[in-house]
């Protein structure tokens, strides 16, 4: 593919668009690809003069409409004005001809009518909905209910779309605050002029190309225009006529008009080839790696299976033999070993524990087993699978297997405890319901032959530490009832150190590790896709939206009948992508595809999730947009492609997600779409690391005394603890914690501390503190027809304050809802459907302050100290922005109660001389400190396994920092970082390496080529305040000051800080008696 300069792009696109319209047009192909920087084609034919006149009228009218209203401009809005200028009726076909000439610049399509309104809540504020409790300072959010949302009206939009320097600047200006952007007269004239030039240039290039080839330019344009005449979505006939489909499939790169049967789709290789020939392609693929198909490697069992089991496997699963890893695992289990199998997704891992469980039952009907899964959904899935197998095994007809978890009805529990041979459960149930009731489970535990933990890699970090103690409590109880033969079997994705992890989780040391994957795989393609620069000539403008690139790929693949899953990192992105896809497919008239796309994420009701899973599994869905909730193996059938929007939370996560696509006899595709984040761009520059870097180590920390203590309190309640007997289960801190936290009786038995009584497991939750939840209720239909309100979601308090505030836009399945009313006492948020083409972003400020110091350490070569301790965050949501993409359309004030949380974290005070230097040089200290904190946050993934939001900082809010009046709120000059979830332990790890981390952040900052900050250094998508209060030089000074590195004060050009100083020297937080740790890093 020859490189195209952006200047010639319009012509190239033009040619690309006419390539599809028939053999006659193809002749013009070669010419415009020559290097011809600026073409002057001489005088224009009349036809093009006429088009130019029309273009100029459109240009003027649209620009003025747009500048005033910030709305998408519809055909109807501009029609009369344009007709007034051109003095004749405005013809759709003529507009399509203009679009054919400059396809990238013009948007001409049908969209949902509701989706282009912005301010209608204002317009209908005085409608029949009256507020119940108007708070002072809060606006009126009442909105007439949407029409029946399924009956969307469509309007024809005619508008310019551009991603160039000019509009980018306008966008940035808009970001700088409050008022929506209003173009000045001068800016407007410039914009019009620029569009005019684009048109002229495109026509010149076209004319030159045609002259060179002897083509008729008028015919070419008119032919190409036919594809650009918009068709009303509801009038489209579908499936389209077969002829059109055939011609589309025969040679052109355009996706077929009818989605092919996914079974009969094109090979991935062909699809990639077409993708790179598509007009959208600008060299985005920075790496393509192919993984060849692999044949099965078979293994041999050391014992003969009974004919009954053999037949069942054959008839239920078509299993005729065992892959090498399956056979090796089965043999090891039969030898009485603990086994961990770490192989790729879909390599047939469940057989590994199902078969021995069935063999055990054949030998001894009283034998039992526990199968543990990270989620209830997965347990249900696996239960069904084993049931289907079990009914086919002659001789085991009476055997009962069952799920036993939080959803199991009370009246069924006793029956299961007494009669089930295998239970499907999770660690939470084991911890809270099975272990504390050892007496009722004694029979089951005594006969327990096998404990299976599937998806072992899931248990890492705090969760890993928690479950490791649960597993050890289980081993201790089994031993107490006289059962010492139980084996532990785990299956896991491909992980770094399966043996070590298995040993850590169970506290066992004889582990057989199986990693040789004998399962066959199809051919796999992996692409790294980096969004192109907005302007090749000016990389500083950044790259185009990764989300839009991912949406494009998603639509492209679905149109080719490729069943695709698109993974997003956070729920919000998931909804924004769904909204975009909804919009784009509607505009393209592809309701047929839209009907087969669904979003899937946490927070949805169980019923909704099950329905989506079922749709996916049955093959009805063509596309799923998911968060990593689907990363774990819930079976949703076979997918052919995975798109990852942004580098997932770690290499392990990336491989898991990529593994969701592909089946044995079929080729598959995984695409990583790079975000602008430093970590993403790092992998785009070093693509081989994506394939070669080992997965992150899984963390289990049995020396975490807090977690150890809570489990010892539980264990002592299950069975009093004896130091000499139980040390082997609980690690090196065991004795000390028993002695200091438990109660010892005269005979040396340790029992639970009274503060944990009567039920210690009630005080210990494996998944952290269970937060209060807000219930989100959809009242759309209730209002309309007195119908029933519907519970849409339940969301945790910590998210509710940012997602359900009155007037905010709440998203569900890519549909937008207006938050009508939030009651903080009953924790109910009422929302109603409202199709809007903006989203809202809360405006808040958070004070992050240390409240207690636990540890202090030196920072190498510096007088400053790094502190670790308790941190309190106080968040106030005082309003919100209405946004479209990155543009702020409006700002709204709110009055809501503060939200206070506490967790752990670390901080470093900025030395007085550094603060003075900033002030001397007229650099805003708040900007400097905020930027320095972001520089640190953005390099954390290099040091620890973190996800977005795992670690946060105090983000400086422009509304607070740039106030006209001097504020009473002064903040300490301090770099501060906290754990997003309490006890994740991440800040503690970073604190141990403070010097390294700060030095690395400074290095990145000083080597970044940008002028005043970019996503690769100080800008972060996790900044809750839009990265506005930032200063790159200031950040360098702060980091140098803290590290005590030389600063050449004379070389710093003084800046002009127009704002009040909001930062004062930090007061140390009481730390008397805490020993100073040396920096040995
Ligand atoms: Zn930079
Ligand atoms: Zn920030």
From TrEMBL:
Annotated SMART domains: CDT1, DEXDc, HELICc
Record-level GO BP terms: interstrand cross-link repair; nucleotide-excision repair
CDD domains found in the cross-reference section: DEXHc_Hrq1-like (cd17923), SF2_C_Hrq (cd18797)
Entry's Gene Ontology molecular function annotations: 3'-5' DNA helicase activity; ATP binding; hydrolase activity; nucleic acid binding
Record region (Disordered): 124-146, 232-262
Gene Ontology CC annotation, any one: nucleus
Positions of the Helicase C-terminal domain: 552-706
Keyword annotations of the record: ATP-binding, Hydrolase, Nucleotide-binding
Helicase ATP-binding domain ranges (all copies): 330-513
This protein's name: p-loop containing nucleoside triphosphate hydrolase protein
């Amino acid at each position: 593919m020859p490189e195209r300069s952006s200047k010639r792009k319009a012509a190239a696109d033009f040619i690309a668009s006419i390539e599809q319209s028939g053999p006659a047009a193809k002749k013009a192909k070669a010419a415009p690809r020559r290097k011809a920087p600026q073409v002057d084609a001489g005088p224009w034919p009349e036809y093009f003069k006429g088009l130019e006149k029309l273009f100029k009228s459109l240009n003027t009218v649209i620009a003025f409409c747009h500048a005033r209203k910030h709305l998408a401009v519809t055909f109807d809005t501009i029609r009369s004005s344009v007709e007034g200028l051109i003095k004749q009726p405005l013809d759709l076909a003529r507009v399509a001809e203009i679009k054919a000439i400059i396809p990238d610049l013009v948007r001409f399509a049908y969209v949902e009518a509701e989706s282009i309104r912005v301010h209608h809540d204002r317009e209908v504020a005085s409608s029949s909905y009256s507020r119940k409790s108007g708070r002072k300072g809060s606006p009126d959010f009442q909105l007439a209910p949407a029409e029946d949302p399924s009956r969307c009206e469509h309007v024809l939009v005619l508008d310019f779309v551009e991603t160039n320097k000019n509009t980018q600047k306008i966008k940035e200006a808009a970001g700088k605050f409050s008022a929506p952007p209003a173009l000045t007269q001068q800016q407007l004239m410039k914009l019009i002029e620029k569009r005019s030039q684009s048109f002229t240039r495109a026509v010149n290039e076209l004319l030159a190309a045609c002259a060179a080839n002897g083509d008729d330019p008028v015919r070419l344009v008119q032919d190409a225009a036919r594809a650009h005449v918009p068709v009303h979505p509801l009038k489209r006939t579908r499936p389209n006529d077969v002829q059109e489909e055939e011609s589309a499939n025969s040679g052109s790169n355009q996706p077929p008009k009818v989605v092919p049967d996914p079974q009969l789709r094109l090979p991935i290789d062909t699809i990639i080839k077409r993708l790179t020939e598509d007009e959208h392609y600008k060299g985005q693929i920075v790496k393509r790696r192919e993984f060849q198909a692999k044949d099965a490697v078979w293994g041999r069992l050391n014992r003969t299976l009974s004919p009954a089991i053999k037949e069942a496997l054959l008839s239920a699963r078509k299993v005729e033999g065992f892959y090498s890893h399956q056979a090796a695992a089965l043999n090891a289990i039969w030898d009485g070993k603990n086994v961990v199998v770490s192989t790729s997704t879909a390599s047939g891992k469940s057989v590994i524990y199902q078969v021995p469980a069935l063999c055990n039952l054949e030998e001894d009907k009283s034998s039992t087993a526990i199968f543990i899964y990270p989620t209830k959904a997965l347990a249900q899935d696996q239960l069904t699978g084993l049931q289907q197998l079990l009914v086919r095994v002659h001789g085991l007809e009476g055997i009962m297997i069952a799920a036993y978890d939080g959803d199991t009805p009370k009246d069924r529990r006793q029956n299961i405890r007494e009669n089930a041979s295998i239970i499907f459960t999770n660690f939470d149930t084991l911890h809270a319901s099975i272990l504390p009731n050892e007496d009722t489970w004694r029979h089951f535990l005594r006969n327990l032959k096998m404990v299976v933990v599937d998806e072992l890699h899931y248990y890492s970090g705090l969760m890993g530490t928690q479950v490791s103690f649960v597993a050890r409590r289980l081993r201790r109880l089994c031993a107490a009832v006289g059962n010492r033969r139980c084996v532990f079997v785990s299956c896991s994705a491909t992980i770094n150190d399966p043996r070590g992890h298995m040993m850590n989780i169970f506290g066992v040391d004889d582990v057989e590790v199986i990693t040789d994957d004998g399962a066959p795989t199809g051919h796999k393609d992996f692409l790294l896709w980096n969004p192109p620069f907005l302007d090749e000539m000016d990389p500083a403008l950044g790259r185009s939206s990764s989300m839009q690139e991912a949406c494009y790929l998603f639509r492209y693949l679905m149109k080719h009948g490729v069943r695709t899953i698109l993974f997003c990192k956070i729920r919000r992105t998931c909804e924004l992508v769904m909204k975009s896809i909804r919009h784009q497919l509607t505009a393209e008239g592809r309701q047929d595809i839209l009907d087969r796309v669904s979003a899937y994420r946490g927070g949805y009701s169980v019923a909704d999730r099950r329905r989506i899973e079922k749709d996916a599994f049955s093959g009805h869905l063509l596309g799923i947009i998911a968060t990593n909730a689907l990363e774990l193996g819930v079976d949703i059938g076979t997918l052919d492609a995975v798109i990852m929007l942004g580098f997932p939370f770690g290499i392990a996560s990336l491989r898991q997600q990529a593994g969701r696509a592909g089946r044995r006899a079929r080729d598959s595709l995984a695409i990583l779409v790079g975000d602008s984040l430093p970590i993403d761009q790092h992998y785009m520059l070093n693509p081989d690391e994506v394939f070669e870097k080992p997965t992150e180590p899984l963390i289990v920390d049995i020396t975490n005394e807090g977690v150890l203590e809570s489990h010892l309190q539980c264990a002592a309640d299950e069975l009093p603890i004896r130091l000499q007997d139980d040390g082997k289960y609980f690690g090196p801190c065991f004795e000390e914690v028993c002695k200091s936290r438990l109660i010892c009786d005269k005979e040396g038995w340790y029992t639970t501390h009274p503060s944990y009584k009567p039920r210690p497991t009630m005080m210990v939750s494996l998944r952290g503190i269970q937060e209060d939840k807000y219930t989100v209720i959809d009242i759309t239909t209730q209002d309309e027809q007195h119908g029933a309100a519907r519970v849409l979601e339940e969301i945790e308090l910590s998210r509710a304050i940012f997602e359900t505030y009155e007037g905010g836009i709440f998203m569900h399945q890519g549909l937008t809802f207006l938050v009508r009313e939030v009651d903080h006492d009953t924790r109910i948020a009422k929302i109603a459907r409202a199709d809007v083409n903006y989203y809202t972003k809360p405006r808040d400020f958070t004070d992050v302050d240390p409240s207690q110091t636990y540890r202090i350490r030196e920072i190498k070569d510096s007088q400053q100290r790094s502190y670790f301790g308790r941190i309190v965050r106080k968040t106030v949501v005082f309003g919100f922005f209405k946004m479209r993409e990155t543009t702020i359309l409006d700002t709204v004030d709110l009055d809501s109660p503060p939200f206070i949380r506490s967790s752990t974290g670390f901080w470093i005070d900025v030395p007085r001389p550094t603060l003075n230097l900033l002030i001397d040089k007229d650099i805003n200290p708040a900007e400097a400190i905020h930027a320095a904190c972001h520089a640190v946050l953005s390099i954390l993934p290099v040091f620890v396994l973190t996800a977005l939001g795992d670690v946060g900082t105090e983000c400086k809010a422009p509304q607070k920092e740039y106030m006209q009046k001097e504020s009473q709120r002064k903040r300490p000059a301090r770099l501060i970082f906290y754990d997003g979830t309490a006890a994740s332990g991440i800040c503690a790890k970073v604190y141990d390496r403070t010097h390294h981390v700060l030095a690395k952040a400074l290095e990145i900052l000083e080597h970044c080529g940008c002028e005043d900050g970019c996503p690769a250094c100080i800008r972060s998508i996790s900044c809750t305040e839009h990265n506005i209060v930032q200063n790159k030089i200031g950040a360098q000074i702060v980091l140098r000051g803290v590290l005590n590195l030389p600063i050449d004060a004379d070389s710093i050009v003084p800046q002009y800080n127009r704002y009040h100083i909001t930062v004062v020297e930090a007061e140390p937080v009481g730390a008397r008696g805490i020993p100073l740790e040396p920096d040995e890093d």
